[in-house]
Amino acid sequence: MSVERLPAGHYDTVWASPGRVNLIGEHTDYNDGFVLPFALPHRTVVGGRRLDGPTWTVTSEGYDEPVTFGPGEKVEGWAAYVAGVVWALREAGHDVPGAELFVTSDVPSGAGLSSSAAIECAVMAVLLDLAGIDVPMAVRPRLAQRAENEYVGAPTGIMDQSASTLGREGHALFLDCRSLATEQVPFDLAAQGLAILVVDSKAPHAHVSGEYAARRRSCEEAAKILNVAALRDVTDLDEALTRLDDEVMRKRVRHVVTENQRVLDTVDALRAGGAREIGPLMTASHESMRDDYEITVPQVDTAVNAALAAGAHGARMTGGGFGGCVLALVDADRCDAVEAAVREAFTEAGFTPPDAFVVTPAEGTHKLS
Ligand code: GLA
Hints:
Strand order of the largest sheet: 5-4-6-3-1-13
Strand content: 15-25%
Radius of gyration: 20 Å
Shape: globular
Number of strands: 13
Distance between the termini: 15 Å
Helix content: 25-40%
Order of helices and strands: EEEEEHEHHHEEEHHHHHEEHEE
Bound molecules: alpha-D-galactopyranose
């Protein structure tokens, strides 16, 4: 993290927003369902200095050229996440001042760890602070999601921006994506001798946006046929499945409905202090994503299988799918052994070597200076 790259005293304000992993509840957010992500120690840091005119100039560490845009301008590439936030805030009626922004991040990009939500949420915090506008944290995820949906053009749900904004150290965020009610669920694995190992599968994210949009469309069509507002409202899965002719659609519905239940069961287990018990729920979630939602790839399936064979209590892909990361719930003293087993399986399969690291839930959006 090169926060020190921000020239001391040059910026009026500096904020940080983290990436996230999702413990369980995949592709449930846009079905008005439940999710249980937590914020990562990896974060994006944004410094901001007020400018007089309505112009925004943003420099990102790692990209040579700063990008400058005015109100209403369409920006492409990484800076679209910044311009999208300016756009969403202005659409919501906030008078966002012009600013010079500097962005630095240690959230791996393209790994399904929400580097885009991290940049959106940190930029939003800086702009609101510069403007002296008090927008409650609870309201910000919706605004950042709007930037992503309507400006960037990715039809994602509200999970990532919620985790990045509202995550709390030592807790997972239980979010009802319909009511937006939240509960901070204690998730202190070290106390139970456990750890979450993240394996970045390094699988190339081919076709990810088209496939994501197709899954979402299929869910919305199914909800229409079943005459419910969203798949979250399906209460009798067997009965619902008899009303759908299309086999693919039946599988999609079965994933979403069973996944929602797994989130509720996971939260119950954690409330009762039984982190080890969530392992089988994680693995069942992976199987459902693999067989019913059909969003896994050989690299993530290999990582899950190898982790389980090496003694993980549970393992699953996290995030939108088609690559990205796997989470494994492991005994703290087995992290190295599980990581070694996954590496060996990747070598045998001829895959690019994965990255692996242990994570603990960290703080959501916060001010650094
Ligand atoms: C991506 C999206 C989220 C969510 C997940 C799948 O991360 O940004 O809104 O839909 O995929 O759970």
